[in-house]
Design a protein that fits this description.
Layout: H1 8-30, H2 36-43, H3 47-53, H4 57-82, H5 85-102, H6 104-115, H7 126-142, H8 151-157, H9 170-186
């Protein structure tokens, strides 16, 4: 049975949605209160198209959060395919810190969207938790980290990333923090 091509209308709608998300990530990272009408205009879509895709600010912000978290999570499997487990874990930690700092403005938009009375709760970082678990298990099997470290342990340990100010010399501080965490993960590893 031949595959049907995606209808032009459907592909146009998908491109519109992607453009809205691309613009919204930039605009909401700059200013958590960026007007939705300005986002629609910069994305080159009308108000109707915008609101068909995202009926309110909360739905837009939460979709950005989900999309960005999935990007970070997807990096884990790619890194494991191209690097040794220990190197993949450390590189992924850098990717996570990059996300934390470049999306600091977006964090305020997420906080506003999820703290409104009757608004949606912040979605759990499930893809990131699964990615951390994947990397930790690969390292556990390779004997490069102490046995028994859970994704929850790991995510609590790196939570300090979100305390760093994105406008300071955050890279130096993040690198030092993540190196400390890697040292702690290696302590007691069977392969050391």
């Amino acid at each position: 049975m031949p595959q049907q091509k995606e209808s032009p209308r459907r592909s146009d709608a998908q491109r519109n949605r992607e453009r809205i998300l691309e613009v919204a990530i930039i605009e909401l990272s700059r200013c958590a209160d960026a007007p939705l009408s300005a986002i629609a205009k910069k994305a080159g879509v009308g108000q109707g198209t915008f609101y068909r895709n995202f009926p309110n600010r909360e739905s837009l912000v939460l979709e950005i959060y989900r999309h960005e978290m999935q990007q970070v999570a997807d990096a884990a499997a790619h890194l494991l395919r191209t690097r040794a487990p220990e190197e993949a874990l450390r590189a992924w930690m850098d990717r996570l810190s990059e996300f934390a700092m470049t999306k600091a403005g977006l964090a305020e938009a997420i906080r506003q969207a999820t703290s409104a009375p009757g608004g949606p709760g912040k979605p759990p970082p499930t893809p990131v938790t699964a990615a951390a678990e994947l990397l930790l298990r690969a390292n556990d099997e390779a004997g490069t980290i102490r046995p028994g470290v859970t994704a929850d342990d790991f995510l609590l340990a790196i939570a300090g990333l979100w305390q760093l100010a994105p406008h300071d010399d955050w890279r130096t501080r993040a690198t030092r923090l993540l190196d400390l965490i890697m040292d702690g993960l290696r302590t007691g590893a069977p392969g050391t």
